[in-house]
């Protein structure tokens, strides 16, 4: 049960606080699947793309690995808003887990 953050050096302080808050909330939801997955490890990789001085584009990648199941669950979402990108990535990850574990 751990969270690793990558790419936070490109974010300002407010964005880092928002990132950690949303990731902790999403991770709490993912702990519901811990009985099927065992001990889970989440890696959050944030890439900031600033194309020629325009607004920032946030590329968020989530990688979930578990001890019981071989392989990893990978999702990626790209948005203009960091919060939207994170929420979209966690929604996609949860759908991927439900489909793979055949819960719905």
Overview of this protein structure:
With 104 residues, the protein is α+β, with helices and mostly antiparallel strands. The chain has one domain (2-99): Double Stranded RNA Binding Domain. It has three helices and four strands, in the order βααβββα. A four-stranded mixed β-sheet has the order 1-2-3-4, with helices on one face. Strand 3 (57-66) and strand 4 form a beta hairpin. Helix 1 runs parallel beside helix 3. The longest helix has 20 residues, at 82-101. The two termini are 24 Å apart. The model has no long low-confidence stretch (mean pLDDT 88).
Please specify the SSE layout and strand pairing.
Elements: E1 2-6, H1 13-30, H2 34-37, E2 40-49, E3 57-66, E4 72-79, H3 82-101
Parallel strand pairs: 1-2
Antiparallel strand pairs: 2-3, 3-4
Pattern of helices and strands: EHHEEEH
Average pLDDT for all residues: 88
Given the C-alpha coordinates, what overall shape results? elongated
- CATH homologous superfamily placement: Ribosome hibernation promotion factor-like
Determine the N-to-C terminus distance: 24 Å
CATH fold-type name: Double Stranded RNA Binding Domain
CATH architectural grouping = 2-Layer Sandwich
- Which percent range describes the beta-strand content? 25-35%
Strand order of the largest sheet: 1-2-3-4
């Amino acid at each position: 049960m751990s969270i690793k953050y990558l790419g936070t050096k490109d974010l300002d302080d407010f964005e880092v606080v928002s990132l950690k808050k949303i990731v902790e909330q999403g991770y709490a939801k993912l702990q519901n699947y811990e009985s099927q997955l065992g001990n889970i490890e989440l890696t959050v990789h944030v890439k900031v793309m600033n194309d020629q001085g325009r607004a920032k584009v946030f590329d968020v990648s989530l990688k979930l690995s578990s001890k019981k199941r071989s392989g990893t669950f990978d999702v990626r979402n790209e948005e203009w808003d960091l919060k939207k990108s994170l929420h979209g990535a966690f929604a996609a990850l949860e759908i991927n887990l439900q489909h793979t574990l055949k819960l719905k």
